[in-house]
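Take a record:
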Amino acid sequence: MASVSFGAAGSVRAPQDVTAGHRPLTEAEVAVLKANGNRNADATWQNVWVSAEAGAFDAGLIADCEIRGFLVLGRLVPATLQFHDLVLGTGLYHSYLEDVVAGDDVVVRNVAYLSNYRLGNRVMLFNVQEMSCTNHAKFGNGILKEGEREDARIWIGVGNENDARAVLPFEQMIPADAFLWSRHREDPLLLRRFVEMTEHGQSKTLDTYGIVEDDAVIKNSTLLKDAKIGRNAYIKGAFKLKNITVLSSPDEVSQIGEGVELVNGIVGYGSRVFYQAVAVRFVIGRNCQLKYGARLLNSVLGDNSTVSCCELLNNLIFPFHEQHHNSSFLIAATLGGQSNIASNATIGSNHNSRSPDGEMIAGRGFWPGLCSDFKYNSRFASFVLVAKGSYQHELNVEYPFSLVATNGVGRPVSIIPGYWFMYNMYAIARNKSKFQKRDRRAVKVQHVETDPFAPDTMQEVLAAIGRIVELTGRHLKAQGDRRALAAATEEELRQVAKDFLHQNPDAQLVLEDARCQKKFGALIYKPVRGYREYRKILKYFAAATLADYCALRHIPTLTQEGLERIRALPLYTSWVNLGGQIMPAAQVDELLDYIRTGAVYTWEQAHAFYAESLRLYPTHKTTYALYLLERLYSRPLADFGTEIYEDILADVTAINDEMYASALASREKDYDDYFRSVTFRNKAEQEQVVGSIAHNDFLRELKPQIAAFDARLRTLFAGLR
């Protein structure tokens, strides 16, 4: 049963910080308020303060309200506020008001219970059942207040269902922060520093009040408790918003819609949550959508992501994630972003122990097909496409841009390395521009790499090349190849395998890779072609990066002196996808050392470190490009001659031209295939429904880009040949 207390009939004093520029009511104003049916627990009405500006308060604009505690009002004069089709006159009507501070020109109408809130200017509250705030509110941040025990803290159990990778949410959190925190669990000092960084600058006093910032609109909603609502936010028909922050601004307006339930979390700027969606213990990034009954639990969702209908538990998801289907399901995963989860994919349903401690990690561009499920633990390289099927054993797919397919229970899986380059170049060529167009963040706290050809993927390509060479050597030896049998060392055997791969471009090998699937391994199809495609892509990345380096510095062509200047710069050969930003692993380690020692003690400083790394990123990519060329040709740059530069130029030019031709061919089949036309009466109807290849915006943009790059290539190595 609720407790009841009765105080003396004295006035309740408002905090001094909110009464500056305000005055008490006049007797005439009190009389008007009483005549309008208003009731006050303070019989003297000295608990009400209004704007001291002359003519800035009209007592007639408050009617049928019950006042307890204090009420502080800014300018309140006859005016009309409009948001879409909601048009209301300013004033406070038919509401319960307790310890409320309001800015200028507000509307509070039919709010059954409004307690301990501060409202900004031009705020509209209409038809709200309860808005209240406790003095220990944290608005979704993982902090503690005075006297609270540690077990009162709100954690988000990302990446693993047993909470062993849990992180504390905070307003500024981005996936990079959560990734650092979740992946270094063996370091107690570092974990303690992360908690200190989260609590830095946060008030622990028990004097918290709810916040609704300027121009926010809240209507037809049931419960808002311990909520901080940002500027221009629009909330309509929400069911429950409890212990949350909704970040919003005029440039990135956030919206919460019908039937939504949000508990213990942060909604990022410009995000939209609609239609019975539920989120509990969460951080949602900028420009995200959560809708159509989606359930997001114990998860961090990166910027520019869309989730609808499905269920996600215990995930850390980097930017540009898509998951749209009522039957899809994602648990205990860390995804590198630019991912797409198909319908009926039940990812995380199978564990290999009696404890829910399994997990999955995948690089950028993870794309499982319809009805896919996996045995945990599993790991996938970047841009892996997994065909429809049930995968009964743990997977470790180290081949980027590959296709994986099941062959049934108790059999090896099939993998085609470099599949995207062979059969889906349209998707690769479109990837960068597609995601850049979807990036509607007004403020980009962190750069997100959307180019498929970046250091993170190239280091995976380099490793895959090495793996194909290794497996080819074993295969040749097992087949009794004379040169392979004569090889005295592993290095000699690798050279035999390289020679075979270069000299037999049409060889139809099927290799066996035991470490791709537990117990039954994998069959690697078309490895010779995959090897060649991988090498060409490394050359393409290197040439494109060097061309960008020259363009930024207005250098017409590379020279030996220019190459020496690049070689003098720091070289990083190991890279990390840190929340969507690609960063040298050594720099990540450097940041962690700064955090351990206290040199970096706030998350804002960590974000500044990300920004500084981004500033150096083009330079670091360039030195890495030279390193890749040396690895490809197994010799130092000083030994490169005209023949090698001609070979690079020929391959890169061919790839560049193939990129448009392959992208065009990939897309043309959508228009020319006989079965794509069987539902249409004629060609004209088909073009009206699906468009025509001539009007494909991406292909029209790609063609001049390809031509411009060809022109840059012609001069890139002119000074070296």
Remarks:
- The chain is about 30% helix and 25% strand.
- Confidence is low (pLDDT under 50) at residues 1-9.
